[in-house]
């Protein structure tokens, strides 16, 4: 029994804002004849399944896959459907008007040269201007995109980063992903003032040598720790973004990382596995880097064990989030990505271009992409198809739209992840 989670649920039960948020959500969904109180409880319970709940500045982090609750961005996500009726049914079958989250790579420039960087091979001729990014952000919010992340490369390199954050209004949760470069306390406070809710800072190990080796930068470790301290002091929801290679997947070592992250201000440690993308597509021996099924199972066991312990931050993993028992892989359906040059990808790690946002509206491009992708998939889509994508492109990425659609249509899923099955 997870006593910490029970205590947090009891706290939520006596929180007036939570009760108002549940009532508002219920009223949005109740017009659907397929919706009832049992389905409502099932939906909320499944969001919480396997998660450690945290409270940050009056809002609860149920899952970082979802916006915080209660918030305007949470209701934005509920309303992100194609038709203004039968909202619950559309959500149950993942028929969306927009992704839950989208990451905008505002620059491909970065001081690091990471072994597993997904940005490698992206052939962008130029980066979008401030005005172009602001237009994209407005279009995304009008589509009801509930989480907008600014990433790179290194987004803190851009001089207009504060203006880009400010362009994201309260309809969406604003997140920024950084190596920690240039994140002084003053800049962290300014990001918070402009509307940033959360920040993800790269930290791959408790061991300085391992982190710096992964990042190929001797200053990366110290920079990351200082950035986390600054972010926490500025009032940002602070995450340590962690890529763990298969050979480093050891409980004792990860627990050391969790303690280090907590000591330096992290509310959450978010663990990503290396993806067969970017520079890894050129590597031959990946046995010590890429996960297999046993590795993912081991990581999920570590996650759930750690989340029962009070001294650790919240632990989340893509291995669990993308599994059949949770939300599945949302590439192109629940999550999407725009490259620094404006190409719309299914996700950060799948180098398929479904068009450029400087040439056509992202709303049209996203609808075409999601139609080809279909429903959320069981397991990481990038791991399944990226070898073929690389071969089809003859090494010249991103793959063009016609070939991308062909691969997606051939790999559509007929099985929904458990979150959706339980609502259907």
From TrEMBL:
This is Radical SAM additional 4Fe4S-binding SPASM domain-containing protein. Gene3D superfamilies: Aldolase class I. InterPro entries: 4Fe4S-binding_SPASM_dom, Aldolase_TIM, Elp3/MiaA/NifB-like_rSAM, Radical_SAM_PqqE_MftC-like, rSAM, rSAM_sf. GO terms for molecular function: catalytic activity; iron-sulfur cluster binding; metal ion binding. Pfam families: Radical_SAM, SPASM. Keywords: Iron, Iron-sulfur, Metal-binding, S-adenosyl-L-methionine. One of its GO terms (biological process) is heme biosynthetic process. It comes from the Bacteria. Residues 96-309 form the Radical SAM core domain. The keyword Lipid metabolism does not apply. The keyword Glycosyltransferase does not apply. Signal peptide: none annotated.
């Amino acid at each position: 029994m997870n006593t910490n989670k029970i205590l947090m649920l009891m706290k939520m039960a006596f929180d007036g804002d939570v009760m108002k948020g549940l009532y508002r959500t219920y009223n949005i969904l109740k017009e659907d004849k397929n919706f009832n109180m049992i389905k409502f409880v099932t939906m909320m319970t499944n969001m919480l399944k396997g998660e450690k709940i945290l409270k940050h500045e009056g809002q609860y982090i149920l899952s970082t896959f979802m916006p915080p609750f209660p918030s305007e961005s949470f209701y934005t996500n509920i309303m992100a459907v194609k038709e203004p009726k039968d909202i619950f049914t559309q959500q149950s079958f993942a028929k969306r008007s927009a992704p839950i989250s989208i990451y905008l790579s505002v620059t491909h420039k970065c001081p690091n040269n990471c072994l597993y960087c997904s940005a490698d091979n992206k052939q962008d001729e130029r980066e979008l201007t401030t005005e172009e990014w602001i237009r994209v952000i407005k279009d995304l919010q009008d589509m009801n995109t509930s989480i907008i992340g600014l990433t790179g490369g290194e987004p803190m390199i851009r001089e207009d980063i504060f203006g880009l954050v400010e362009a994201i209004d309260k309809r969406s949760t604003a997140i920024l992903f950084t190596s920690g470069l240039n994140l002084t306390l003053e800049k962290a406070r300014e990001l918070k003032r402009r509307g940033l809710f959360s920040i993800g800072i790269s930290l791959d190990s408790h061991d300085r040598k391992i982190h710096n080796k992964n990042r190929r930068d001797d200053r990366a470790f110290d920079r990351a720790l200082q950035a986390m301290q600054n972010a926490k002091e500025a009032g940002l929801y602070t995450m340590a973004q962690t890529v763990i290679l298969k050979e480093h997947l050891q409980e004792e070592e990860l627990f050391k990382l969790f303690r280090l992250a907590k000591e330096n201000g992290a509310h959450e440690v978010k663990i990503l596995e290396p993806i067969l993308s970017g520079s890894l597509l050129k590597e031959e021996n990946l046995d010590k880097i890429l996960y297999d099924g046993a590795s993912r199972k081991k990581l999920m066991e570590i996650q759930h064990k750690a989340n029962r312990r009070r001294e650790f931050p919240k632990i989340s993993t893509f291995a669990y989030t993308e599994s059949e028992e949770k939300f599945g892989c949302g590439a192109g359906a629940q999550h999407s990505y725009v490259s620094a040059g404006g190409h719309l990808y299914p996700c950060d790690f799948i180098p398929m271009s479904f068009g450029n946002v400087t040439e056509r509206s992202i709303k049209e491009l996203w609808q075409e992409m999601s139609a080809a992708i279909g429903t959320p998939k069981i397991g990481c889509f990038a791991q399944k198809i990226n070898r073929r994508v690389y071969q089809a492109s003859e090494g010249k990425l991103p793959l063009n739209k016609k070939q991308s659609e062909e691969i997606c249509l051939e790999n559509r899923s007929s099985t929904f992840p458990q979150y959706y099955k339980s609502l259907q």
